[in-house]
Amino acid sequence: DAKTTQPNSMESNEEEPVHLPCNHSTISGTDYIHWYRQLPSQGPEYVIHGLTSNVNNRMASLAIAEDRKSSTLILHRATLRDAAVYYCILRDRQTGANNLFFGTGTRLTVIP
Amino acid sequence: EPEVTQTPSHQVTQMGQEVILRCVPISNHLYFYWYRQILGQKVEFLVSFYNNEISEKSEIFDDQFSVERPDGSNFTLKIRSTKLEDSAMYFCASSGLLAHTLGNEQFFGPGTRLTVL
Lengths: 112, 117
Prior knowledge:
Shape of chain A: globular
Low-confidence stretches of chain B: none
Structural class of chain A: mainly beta
Oligomer: heterodimer
Number of helices of chain A: 0
Number of helices of chain B: 0
Distance between the termini of chain A: 37 Å
Number of strands of chain A: 9
Largest sheet of chain A: 5 strands, mixed
Strand content of chain B: over 45%
Radius of gyration of chain B: 14 Å
Largest interface: A-B, 23 and 27 residues
Helix content of chain B: under 10%
Distance between the termini of chain B: 37 Å
Helix content of chain A: under 10%
Mean pLDDT of chain A: 92
Strand order of the largest sheet of chain A: 1-9-8-3-4
Number of strands of chain B: 11
Mean pLDDT of chain B: 91
Structural class of chain B: mainly beta
């Protein structure tokens, strides 16, 4: 799987938007961009994924750069429950491989 | 909402003992996985399982490890002779669709904390 680069940590004030960046300059044309998060003392949790177009769901939005070499996970209003480690993961849709390769992610701290 | 469950939540064992960690994946899912997370470290893939056989495994998943789906609901991870370095949080996950289809997210259980003394 292609490599992703994320900041180690970020802070946000509660109820403000959060933009979590991810660089994936070696992304291939068949890679999906997935985001998972891991709340304290819990298993990872799927957040969102996309291929080329921006995506929205009830949890977050995913903005994908036109060249696909970077993406941004957007939490529109951070809550204390959003404090977690956020992982940006590339998955090749052609190989059929299902396993996820987690990096170190971005630890998001939400300040009340 | 359906969820993946794991038992026990915490397992303490002596070095050299066998342990079996149990998981009940989401009922209509086809793919099953084990991951582990040593305290303070990354989540690491161990093995994936599909159609009653291992589809992929990592270098961590050596001969001491085995997986089984003994019935229609349970998915187990066995460590034959535990070592101190096996102490970690073990997560089971399941997914319903092939990797190249939409909606192929993995659903993780809450984990089993394994402590090897």
